[in-house]
């Protein structure tokens, strides 16, 4: 009952009143949801937005620019996950993301002497493939492309890499532990 009310509330708020998102039919929202920024968010059908088992009860979808877009496919499970987009983040169908962070930009200069200057960050889209699993406390940053059915083990950090479908990756920086099957 509560999740039905949360789903109804967030769909009315973000889709109909604020026009920030399109939320597909059958999507269930069981946690706090923040959709912020001037860009667009599109959520597919039959998704589940939920908290994690440790009580982290928030999903944030933040588009930092008007042309930024976050696209979430059908039957995707998000648990306590954060998104920050200057350009494009695409989560394809049947993916699961557990308490992860997904960013497609540097957002600020890493040179401390230049942080107050105007900064033109390098943005590069992020794509998480069909059926992929992104474990707890993982970070996928700009330029990451995970093929279909990739497993990203807990605590892994990846950026500017293309990982072939069917692989398992782990570490900081993430490395391929199990290459894709060549059957």
Protein model, in words:
The protein has 183 residues and is mainly β. The chain has one domain: Hexapeptide repeat proteins (UDP N-Acetylglucosamine Acyltransferase, domain 1), CATH 2.160.10.10. Helix content is 9%, strand content 37%. It contains 1 helix and 21 strands. The chain has an 8-stranded mixed beta sheet. It has a 7-stranded parallel beta sheet with strand order 1-4-7-10-13-16-19. It starts with a helix and ends in a 5-residue tail after the last strand. The model has no long low-confidence stretch (mean pLDDT 91).
List the main descriptive attributes of the protein structure presented here:
1 helix, single chain, globular, 183 residues, UDP N-Acetylglucosamine Acyltransferase, domain 1, 7-stranded parallel β-sheet, 8-stranded mixed β-sheet, mainly beta
Topology of helices and strands:
Blueprint: H1 2-17, E1 21-23, E2 28-29, E3 32-36, E4 40-43, E5 48-50, E6 58-63, E7 69-72, E8 77-79, E9 82-85, E10 88-91, E11 96-98, E12 101-103, E13 126-128, E14 133-134, E15 139-140, E16 145-146, E17 151-152, E18 157-158, E19 162-163, E20 168-171, E21 174-178
Parallel strand pairs: 1-4, 2-5, 3-6, 4-7, 5-8, 6-9, 7-10, 8-11, 9-12, 10-13, 11-14, 12-15, 13-16, 14-17, 15-18, 16-19, 17-20
Antiparallel strand pairs: 20-21
Residues in helix, %: under 10%
Q: What's the architecture, going by CATH?
A: 3 Solenoid
Radius of gyration: 16 Å
**Gap from first CA to last CA:** 46 Å
Strand count, sense and barrel status of the largest sheet are: 8 strands, mixed
Written as H for each helix and E for each strand, in order along the chain, the element string is: HEEEEEEEEEEEEEEEEEEEEE
CATH class: Mainly Beta
CATH-assigned fold name:
UDP N-Acetylglucosamine Acyltransferase, domain 1
Which regions have little confidence, pLDDT < 50, spanning 5+ residues? none
Number of strands: 21
The overall pLDDT, averaged over residues, is 91
Number of domains: 1
Strand content: 35-45%
* Computed structural class: mainly beta
**For this structure, what is the CATH homologous superfamily?**
Hexapeptide repeat proteins
* Mass-distribution shape: globular
């Amino acid at each position: 009952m509560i999740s039905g009310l949360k789903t109804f509330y967030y769909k009315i708020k973000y889709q109909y009143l604020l026009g920030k998102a399109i939320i597909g039919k059958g999507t269930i929202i069981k946690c706090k949801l923040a959709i912020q920024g001037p860009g667009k968010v599109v959520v597919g059908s039959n998704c589940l937005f939920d908290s994690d088992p440790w009580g982290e009860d928030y999903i944030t979808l933040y588009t930092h620019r008007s042309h930024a877009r976050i696209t979430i496919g059908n039957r995707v499970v998000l648990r306590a996950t954060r998104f920050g987009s200057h350009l494009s983040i695409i989560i394809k169908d049947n993916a699961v993301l557990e308490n992860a962070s997904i960013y497609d930009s540097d957002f600020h200069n890493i040179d401390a002497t230049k942080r107050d200057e105007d900064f033109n960050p390098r943005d590069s889209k992020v794509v998480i493939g069909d059926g992929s699993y992104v474990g707890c406390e993982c970070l996928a940053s700009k330029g990451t492309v995970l093929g279909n059915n990739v497993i990203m083990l807990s605590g892994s950090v990846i950026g500017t890499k293309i990982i072939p479908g069917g692989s398992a990756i782990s570490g900081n920086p993430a490395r391929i532990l199990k290459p894709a099957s060549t059957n």
